[in-house]
Amino acid sequence: MIEPAPAVFAPTSDGRQFPVRRIFCVGRNYAAHAREMGRDPDREPPFFFTKWAEAVVPNGSIIPYPPATANFHYEAELVVAIGTGGRNIPVDDALGHVWGYATGNDLTRRDLQLAARDTGRPWDSGKNVEASAPLGLLHPVSAIGHPARGTIRLLVNEEVKQDADLADLIWSVPEIISTLSTLWTLEPGDLIFTGTPAGVGAVVTGDVVRVEIEGLTALTVTIGPAA
Quick check: 191 pLDDT over 80? Predict the structure, then answer.
């Protein structure tokens, strides 16, 4: 008999465990990043891709360098944790569905993602990779409110690579939640990676990568050798 896969839990700043259900990610949600990826940053409707829940790994993890890539990229992101589900959620009600927020890193096999993009294929091989969703401590809304501005920064070996402000998001958190809920019924435990600023780049084995977002606990991971 095959045993069911263990549930995935993310630690919270108040010592609890948040059960992770699904991961949704927003593509090209900062104008400067859209430009560096060769795309128009105009405010077209947001689009999404997904990752497995088991792609989540905690602060301090060693991330095995994944197979089939020579261009493994970091992407600092604000992560939203859904506490109350719903469908067709109005923008004005969206923040009432949020449990909390965390720092995140959307690790990406960039060469595979771009090859898929250029041929009109899904991004799964580039984005949905084992251990590709490092997640910092989740902070409940009751403790920090709803961060809508503040520094988002990523450092590799203490060198700043990404440096922007949450206010630069093309689509705000309420707008993201509202749009997502027209496509899927959001459920408690869902995570939303809200997009990355400009400055993405490759990492190699031994690199220490830290994501900092004002008001949240920093997230640090180390890139390890190939599994």
Answer: yes
pLDDT in tens, 46-82: 899 999 999 999 999 999 999 999 999 999 999 999 9
User: Residues 6 or more apart from 130 whose CB is under 8 A from it?
Assistant: 54, 55, 64, 66, 227
Q: Which pLDDT score, from 0 to 100, does residue 50 have?
A: 98
What pLDDT does residue 39 have? 63
Cβ proximity of 155 and 161 under 8 Å: yes
Q: Please state the pTM of the whole predicted model.
A: 0.96
Question: Which tokens hold the place of 93?
Answer: 């009600």
Instruction: Indicate the range of 19-33, 83-97, 102-116, 152-166 predicted with least confidence.
Output: 19-33
Instruction: Show the tokens assigned to 117.
Output: 């993009």
Nearest to 176 by CA among 10, 24, 62: 24
